[in-house]
Amino acid sequence: MNRSVNFVIPILIAVLTISAWWILNRPNEEPAWPTRIQGFAFSPMRADDDPSRKRFPSVEDIDADLALLKGRTHAVRSYTVESTLAEIPRLAAKYDLNVTIGAWIGDDPEANEVELARLRDILSKGYRNLVRVMVGNEAILRKDVDVMEMVEYLDRVRRLTYLPVSTAEPWHIWLKYPKLVEHVDFITIHLLPYWEGVPLDQAVDYAVSRYNQVKEAYPNKPIIIGEVGWPSNGRRNRGAEASLVNQTRFLRRFLAVAESEHYVYYVMEAFDQPWKLKTEGATGTYWGVYDTNREPKFDFTEPVVRIPQWRELAGLSVVMGVLLLTFLYRDSSTLSKRGKGFLALITYAISTAAVWIVYDYTRQYMTPATAVVGLLLLIGGVGVIVLLMAEAHEWAESVWLRRWRRPFPLRSVPDEWLPFVSVHVPAYNEPPELLKETLDGLAALDYPHFEVLVIDNNTKDPAVWEPVRDYCAQLGERFRFFHVDPLAGYKAGALNFALRQTDPRADVVAVIDADYIVRPQWLRHLVPAFGDPEVAIVQAPQDYRDAGQNAFKAMCMAEYRGFFHLGMVTRNERNAIIQHGTMTMIRRRTLDAVEGWAEWCITEDAELGLRLFEAGHKALYIPCTYGQGLMPDTFADFRKQRYRWAYGAVRILLHHRRELLGLRGTSLSLGQRYHFVAGWLPWFADGFNLLFNFAALAWSVAMVTFPETVTPPYMTIALVPLVLFVFKMSKSLFLYRRRVTATLRQSLAAGLAGLALSHTIARAMFGGLVTGKLGFFRTPKLAEAPAVIRALADAREEALLAFAFLFAAVAVMQRDDAFMLDVRIWVAVLVVQAIPYLATVLVSLTSAWTHLSADLVGPMSDMDCQEANGVDQPVSREA
C-alpha cells in the first residue's frame, strides 16, 4: 500500500502541474496580422551595434534588413541620418519601400547643426521614395529643447523641402503646446499605452481615444501615428505587463482597428535593440517584432499562446519534481499520505517555479554581465531549492508521521543489572552557590552505582573553587573534585582529564554543565538504553529553569525549544542527532576507542557524536526533561553562545567533509549524511544571505545614484527572498503551534529571537570558513543585565544595517519610477531584509529591560514523558 502511494501521489500532482501549465497557456483567438502593414519604425542596429558609441550597422546589414521587410510593410521610419543610416532612403528604394526620414535633435546644438546639414544633403538628392521628414523624436518630452527651439528647427527644414515636415512627440505634448502645431505640416503622435501603465485589455481602446482626442483638438491637421507598440519583455509598469503574449495581442488587435479606420501608422518597431538597455533600461530592448537574429518573435496568424514552449517546460517541471521526490521518498516509509502529498505539492511547486524563473531569465538578451549574473543566480538557486526541500522535509516529518521508528519505552531494570556511571561536571569560574545546587541534584539521583567528578579548570581565584572542593568532601566519597591549572583544551580538555580519572568500573560516562539541576530519575530511566550493545550515546534535551525571570529569557526559552522538540526528534529517526554536551551519556568503551573529546574543536560535543556515527554506533534521543540549567542573562551572551555553536558547526563540516561527502569510507548512512549537511544548511543560508544583503545595498545605491540607467533586479529573482522568508516564517509558526505546543505569542517570540541571531550566525559562518583559531567562550550565568545604552551598543552592527536597508528603501521610493511594480517589490525586499536586524535591536533592548515580565511571552510547558510505558512523541496517527 505504502509503495503504491509513492507512485500515485506524484502522478496526481504531476497531472495537476501539467493542467496548471495548460490552463495558463490556452490558445486565444486574435485578429490576424495584415498581409502588409503601413510602416515600421526602423533602427537596423545589430546585437553589437551601439550608436551611443558610434558603432553603426554596415550598409550590407541595412540592405539585408530592408530586404527582409519587402512585401511586409509599405514604409519605414528612420530616426537619424548619422553614419550609414543616411543610406536608408537609397537602399529602401530597391525594395519599393517608402521612407519617412528622421533627423535626431538632442541637447547639443552643435551636433544638431551637423545632423541638419546631413539631412539637407540627403534631401537634395531627391529620392522619390521619401514621403515625410521628422525633425526630432520626443526632444521636447526629454527636455533636450524647448518648444520655440523646436519651432525654429522645423521652420528651417520646411524651407528646405517640399515634403511635409513634422516632429514626433507623445499625444499629450501636442495637446499641451498648440503653438507647435502651427509649425508642422502634420502631427506625429506616439501611442505607447505600456508607458502609461494601461492594462492590455484596455490598451487599444485607450490608444484610439488618445488619437481621437488629438484629432478633435486639431481637426485641420493630418495625424499619423509615429510609434505604436508594446514590449515583449521588461518591467511591469503598473497594470501594463511587458510580455511576448501581450505584445502579440496588442499589436494584432491594434492593427485590426488601424486598418479598418485607415490610420497611417508605424509599428514600434521592426527589430529589437539591445543597445537601448543603457538608456531605456531592459524594457527598451524588446519592442521589436523581430529579434536580433531577424526571426519573428510571435506567430502572425495562429491563436495566441502565452508560452508557446509550455509543453516542454511542463515536462521539464515534472521530470525535475520526480527526481527531487525520488530522493525525498527514498526513506519515507513512516510518512503518511498527507505528508507525502505535502512533499509532492511543495516539490512540484519548487520545480515549476525554478523552470519558469530560468525560462523567464533566458528570454532576455545575454551580455557578459547578464551571463555572469545568471550563473551566480543559478548557483544560488540550487542552494535555495536544497534549502526549501530540507525545510519542507522537516515540516512533513514533524507533522505527518504515521509512527515513530525508534520509540523509547521506559523499562524497569533491577539494580544489580544497572551499570556503573561516572558523571562528569566541567566547571570554570562558576559561582560556588550555583555549583552546589548542581551537586545537590546529583546527590539526590535515584541510582545505585555512580560517581561524580567535578573538574575545575583554570579558575584563578581560590575563593571560587575551594568552597566547591569542600562541599564535594561533605557529600561523600562518590564526589571527587579536581582543580587543574593550567589545563589546555577548554571544556574538551577538562572532560579528557576527567576521563583519565574515571573509576575503572564505569561503563557509562554522563556529562552535565555546571549549572544543571538533574531530576532523580535521569540515570535510572535512560541508562537501560545501553542494554543495546550498538547504542553509544543516550541524549536528553537541554532545558532551562529560569524562563520566568523576564521577557528576554522567556523568548530565549521559546527559541531553544524548537530545536529540541523538532529538529532533534526528526534527526533521531535516522540515528543522526546532534550530541550536545550536557544531559548526554556515552558508553565509555566507545569513548576510549575514539580517543576521547576533540580538543581542537570549539563544539567538541557535536564533533564526538559525528565521530561515533562514523564508527557505526547508534544514538538515542529522548525528548523529555531530565535536567534544567540557566540561560544567558544578556543578549550579548546569547549571541556569543550561538556564534560558538555556528562557528563550531562550520569547523566540524570542514574537518569531516570527506566523510560526509562519501569520499572516505565510514559507516555513515545516507540519512545521517543528509541530516548533518541539511541540518546546518539554514545557518549557511544566513551566511550567503549576508553576501546578498551587501549586494542588495550596493545595487540600491546604484539605483539611487544612476536612476536613468540602473533599474531594479529582475523581478522574478527579487521575489525569491520574499518567498523564502514567508515560507520559513510560515513553517516556524505552524510547527511551533502544532508540535512544540506553543501559543501564538510564544511562537512569535521564538521567531523574533531566532531572527535576531541571523547576523551573528552569518558572521560565524564566514569566521569558521577562514580561521580555526576561535577561543572557547563560556556562557556566563547570573551576569548583571546591561543598560539600554549597552544593549544598543551590543546590537550596533545590526542597527546600522537595519538603518541602511530602511534608508535605502526610502531613497529608492524617491525615484520617478517608484510606482512601477518591480521597484515596489525591490523596496519590499529591502524592508524584509531589514527585519532580522531590527529583531536584533529589539531583542537586545528586551534583554536590558529586565522589568518586562515573562508573562508577556508566557510559560512553556515542560518536555515531560506523559505515557507510563514510554516517551510521548505525539504525531499524526493517520494511516
UniProtKB/TrEMBL annotation:
Family annotation (Gene3D superfamilies): Glycosidases (3.20.20.80), Spore Coat Polysaccharide Biosynthesis Protein SpsA, Chain A (3.90.550.10)
Stretches that traverse the bilayer: 7-24, 313-329, 341-359, 365-390, 680-702, 714-736, 748-770, 825-849
Record membrane topology: Multi-pass membrane protein
Broad class of where this protein is predominantly found: membrane
Presence of keyword Transferase: yes
Domain of life: Bacteria
Compartments, as annotated in UniProt: Membrane
Gene Ontology MF terms: transferase activity
Pfam families in the record: Glyco_tranf_2_3 (PF13641)
InterPro entries: GH (IPR017853), Glyco_hydro_17 (IPR000490), Glycosyltr_2/OpgH_subfam (IPR050321), Nucleotide-diphossugar_trans (IPR029044)
Key words of the record: Glycosyltransferase, Hydrolase, Membrane, Transferase, Transmembrane, Transmembrane helix
Protein name: Glycosyl transferase
Organism: Allochromatium tepidum
Gene name linked to the record: ndvB
